[in-house]
Amino acid sequence: MKRHFILIFTLFSYLGFSQCEDSEKLDFGGTYSSKTNNYIPFDLDISDTIQYCCDIKKIKSYSDFIFKKSKDYIIERGGNEFYNNLKIHQLEVNYNDSIKIVYENQKLYNLSNYNVTYWILYTYKNKNIEYGFGLEFDKNGKMISENKFPKYSENNGFENLTDYCLALDLVKKDKRFKDKKVDYIELAYLESSNSFCWLIEEKKSMNKEFEKWEEKTVNLYFVNANTNKMELVKESKSYTIACGFGTLTKKTKKELRKEKRKRKREEKK
Known about the structure:
The protein is an alpha+beta fold. The chain contains six helices and eleven strands. It has helices at 12-15, 49-52, 60-78, 80-84, 164-172, 253-268; strands at 29-30, 39-43, 54-55, 86-94, 117-126, 129-138, 182-190, 195-202, 213-224, 230-243, 246-250. A hairpin with a 2-residue loop joins strand 5 and strand 6.
C-alpha cells in the first residue's frame, strides 16, 4: 500500500530524531474514522463550508456544549499541555441509520429531535509527528468511544517520545522479524500500557502464482514510545491475488480506515 510520508528529510535533525534506515517510512498515525457513515459533517473553517456542506453556526448551541464536554474530558485525562497540542478539524453529527441525510433538509439541524451522537476529529502533533483520532459523545456530552491517548495521572511523561529509530532497531533485532522488511512505522496508542507506542508493520510478500488467492499474515510490533520496550506483537491478516495487471489486495479494516482518512485530508487541501 502506497504511503504518504509525514516528515521530510531535511527536518529530522531539527526535530531531534536521528536519520536511520527505513526512517522515510514514517507515516501519519491513528485514524479519524467513526463507526458510522450516516452523518453530517460540520467543518470549523467557514471558508470550507461550500466544500463541506454545513456551517457549524447552524448547530452552535449544540456544538458549543459538546466541544466544552470534549475539552473537559481531554484535559482531565491527558492534561492541559496535551490539549494545547491538539487541532480540531471537524465535528460529525451521527444520525440513526433510519434517518435519510439530506443536507438541504433544515429540520435535521434541530438536533433535539434526534438521538444523535457527535464525533470530533483531532490531530495531535509532537515534534512534527502527527497522530489523528476521533472521540464520540452522546447527546448529553458523555464520551462513549474508547480511549485514544494515555492517562496523564498514571503516565505524566507520555508526551516525551523516544526516537523511532530506536524502535526500528529493536524490532529488527527480534527473531520474529528475521528476513523481513518494514512496511511502515507510525505513532499508535496502546491501552494496555497506557502509552503511545511506535507501531511497526512487516511488509507483505508478493504473490508469485498467477490468479491464486493467498492469505498473508504479518506481524505488528508495538514498541513503547517512552521506554523503547516491546509491549506487544500481534498478527494481521489480509488476502492477495496475483493478476496480469499486478497484485490486488483484499484490504484489512485498518487499511480501509487509513484510505478514508487520507481522502479526508486531501479534500481539506
